[in-house]
Amino acid sequence: MIDENLTNKPKSAMTDKERVRVFQRKLYCKAKQEKDFRFYVLYDKLSIGYFLREAWKRVKANGGAAGYDKVKISDVVHFGVDEYLLEIARELKAETYKAQPILRVYIPKSNGKLRPLGIPTVRDRIVQMCCKLIVEPIFEADFEDCSYGFRPKRSAHDAVTAIASNLKSGRNEVYDADLSGYFDTIPHDKLMYLVEQRVTDRRILKLIRQWLKAPIFEDNKLNKNNTGTPQGGIISPLLANIYLNLVDKAVNRKDGAFFKYGVTIVRYADDFVLMGRRIPQHCLSYLHGMLDKMELMVNTEKSHLVNNQDEPFDFLGFTFRYDRDIYGKKQKYLNIIPRKESEKNVRKRIKEYLRYNGHKNPYELSKGLNPILRGWLNYITIPQVSYPKKAKRKLRWYVMQRLHRYYRRKSQRKCKLYRQNAFEVLEKRHGLINPIKYNYV
């Protein structure tokens, strides 16, 4: 008998999301209070109706392409969500669930290279999300406060704010580290050893191993997967955080070399910086030695030690630098601005959108441009921390120029908006976002 029949609404007044949160809170408190406790009965929760329903809602909200079996989210809706989840629950209950291969695709990076992504099937994404909802609170209790990537109620803005705080407190020596292909090089055995320090339910561990070992489908053939966790999988960011939590703990350990010199770490997924008034070479040697033992590779070309008072550095799409006061004062001030590559990327997206939308009416055109503008403006604007005014002015000017060219070539006859200021007309009449006037949401 499947726990919590998926076709019936729960009798409790609480929503699925609230019931999941209550359970997560209990796990978190238990893990926080007992640092050495190992959780051994978790698998049965996977087939509970409100966990599967909540997992489905989140997978659907994330969207994403079809996986190896070519089943899309819309296909699940057409088939019937309740029936689909009931089938998954039956497989999990009978322990007949098997992870399917990962579809490998490549997306372009800003530097012209390609980033490999692994796309699990919709079925696997639902089960991974359900598993993540259950085990994440356990490991959240162990994670350090210096980690910000892919964690509940934490964001890149929090990481940038922490870096700004460290710089203002005098930690101007910065080691900007870059790991080569981190997600693809995590050793499975060492990662699973860390997972087993908290979770001993053999059936949960078996599931995680299945996802790690799932073959990669690429170039019309299946390839074995002996290392790494697919970048694109639902549970991959959590597993990546579990592994790099070793580095966080090493830096923050009170009897360690880093703490002695006041060196701190700010990490967002596999990107991190060490910050201190002075970072001795033996600290960096210790870090590199530790990463070698973890079988991770440091990109020496991109990793470098700088004094931010004299040299800027980039992190998470921002440039951190000290500029002289415009009034001629000798004292410099910290300036956090959008990275040039970030500005290029948003301009590229605007250019591509206008290039392939030659028959949109003004309202539809504005409606299509606004998400691009809003998403970037929200990211670069961190109240009381970043200074994006110049970048906003440049973006406004670029949009004006692109719209002018767009309406000039729209047809053989000149469009009405060609002889007008198209940007102002779209802003006033059709709600186009003006970057200069836009307020952070």
Radius of gyration: 25 Å
Summarize the biggest pleated sheet: 4 strands, mixed
Helix content: 40-55%
β-strand number: 11
Class per helix and strand makeup: alpha+beta
- Low-confidence segments, given as residue ranges, are none
Distance between the termini: 46 Å
Mean pLDDT: 90
Short recap of the structure:
Helix content is 47%, strand content 13%. The chain has helices at residues 16-33, 49-62, 73-79, 81-94, 122-140, 156-168, 182-185, 188-196, 202-213, 236-252, 257-260, 281-293, 340-355, 362-380, 389-408, 422-430; strands spanning 102-108, 114-119, 173-178, 216-218, 221-223, 264-268, 271-276, 304-307, 313-315, 318-324, 332-338.
Features:
441 residues; alpha+beta; 4-stranded mixed sheet; 4-stranded antiparallel sheet; globular
Describe what you observe in this structure.
- By secondary structure, the chain is α+β, with helices and mostly antiparallel strands.
- Helix content is 47%, strand content 13%.
- It has helices at 16-33, 49-62, 73-79, 81-94, 122-140, 156-168, 182-185, 188-196, 202-213, 236-252, 257-260, 281-293, 340-355, 362-380, 389-408, 422-430, and strands at residues 102-108, 114-119, 173-178, 216-218, 221-223, 264-268, 271-276, 304-307, 313-315, 318-324, 332-338.
- Strands 2-1-4-5 form a four-stranded mixed sheet, with no helix packed on it. A four-stranded antiparallel sheet has the order 6-7-3-8, sandwiched between helices.
- 34% of the residues are buried.
- The mean pLDDT is 90.
